[in-house]
Please model this.
Amino acid sequence: MEKLERIPTKQDIIETYEAIAEMIHYTPMMMSESLNQISGAELFFKCENFQKIGAFKMRGAASAAIRLTDKELENGLVTHSSGNHAQAVARAAQLLGVPAYIVMPENAPSIKVEATQGYGAEIIFCKNVEDREPTVRAVVERTGATFIHPYNDYNVIAGQATCAMELLQDVEELDVIMAPVGGGGLLSGTALSTRYWSPSTKVIGAEPDIVNDAWRAMQSGQIESNTSTDTIADGLRTNLGEKTFDIIRQHVDDIITVSEEAIIEAMKLVWERMKIIIEPSCAVPLAAVLQNKERFEGEKVGIILTGGNVDLKKLPF
Amino acid sequence: MEKLERIPTKQDIIETYEAIAEMIHYTPMMMSESLNQISGAELFFKCENFQKIGAFKMRGAASAAIRLTDKELENGLVTHSSGNHAQAVARAAQLLGVPAYIVMPENAPSIKVEATQGYGAEIIFCKNVEDREPTVRAVVERTGATFIHPYNDYNVIAGQATCAMELLQDVEELDVIMAPVGGGGLLSGTALSTRYWSPSTKVIGAEPDIVNDAWRAMQSGQIESNTSTDTIADGLRTNLGEKTFDIIRQHVDDIITVSEEAIIEAMKLVWERMKIIIEPSCAVPLAAVLQNKERFEGEKVGIILTGGNVDLKKLPF
Model:
């Protein structure tokens, strides 16, 4: 399968989906009467917390990995991440029978380190963010492994796009589809699938007030960075990349930002009412709906619940 | 619809199912690769935590309520419960447009009180267990409401039986089906449906060591009581009733008891691996499998996850 060097087409996404089907779950869509009542909208939740490794990141990692040549693959995969992308790359490598090397900061939560090791990966610690890329380069030199970027890669974006593709197959005529935005891999993939399969559906990204770089980038027309990353939504601390921003600028209708309190409240509501476990990052789009009820009143809103990997010992409520 | 004065037949359960279909959810069945790996068995989880009011109790309450005559129904429903049965009766009354009166101990957790009030019920507090039945009688005298027993009632049992009926439709040829046992409403209903729809499937109940009255009752041939009820599995503190014990004695193959630590560990595993929220009581059958791995090795085991109503502020891990 050829590597994508362009914005994924509809056909690219379909082919990606067929190629990764064995490596991922078709995740269920859930509804909640009580959250419909609270929000005033009709909400359709795409449950990527039930995805393999507990997050949508499995789609993008699988999509990138299966496109590597035998030669690129044989020495394994490497990435830097302390989050779900780490587990996704580790699991993809395991499924393809090659080694995985994951660069993580020294202060990464032990639960994330252990989960990634659980998929057979070797963890290489780096001191800080500046040290991250040199450490990856050193791993590549030592092992010959191939780097998989967490989001700024069309192959990864095509994988993440399969999530909205599934949701748009399950639910017709959504008024809005929402995804959280960090590096923008999921949001850009969601925007592409929506344009291809349901062009009249609005695409809205949601992010914490504290890391509102995507919102500012939409205003300024250029990639913005964040001065603080101190949000509970740990999956959304990253900036957009060029490739993801390019797609988002063209195909995303709006970005809504929300407070930390609203994120925690929305997360708790999902746990209590839907009886499912979601990460704080996941709760950001629902928080955006609940903070803007009049805007979404009576609308059919698709929300991608991105993942469920939380440390049960450190809950915010 | 006629009230059941006998052990529910297959036809009774089918008719019950059709009659309550509008009031309940057909709940999903979930599997988990990682729990299969950990247990060595093939596990099929029936997710009653996604049931209306967050627990299977909705089935039994609906089944009992819809069989009442207009005259019995018009003054509303009354029960005593501080748990899921309270919410189930409240919700059933709400759906049928009649009042609900729920007798709860003064020290009932405020989260349960509020949830039950949320379904429009009036809460009447009683001082202690001895005061419970007189309080119910006083409510009946004052209001004319009709009492719905939490488990020792064939109409309730027929409702709970619809849960295993659904699971046995979804999964063929289970070797074992397991349910937790408190008062025995769910276990006796499960046993009946299993005998009717999959007679070769073994039926096993699971309960905490601390409240092992069902296990002792199976040995002694008579209903036993518990000296302590200090288990985290708060849904399983009750003794069997005559009607439930009669069915369990005939149709249940075994009762397995488990430690408190095993319950907490099993609950945590479900939260972490399946990303769903279950109550401690739910985790008891999985704990029984994990404590007896050789016994269940390679078997297809159906497990009813009974409910997901937990106080997120008081987690045991």
Notes: Chain B is about 45% helix and 15% strand. The domain at 10-55+153-305 of chain B is CATH 3.40.50.1100 (Rossmann fold). Chain B touches chain A through 18 residues (CB under 8 Å). Residues 206 and 256 of chain B are 5 Å apart (CA to CA).
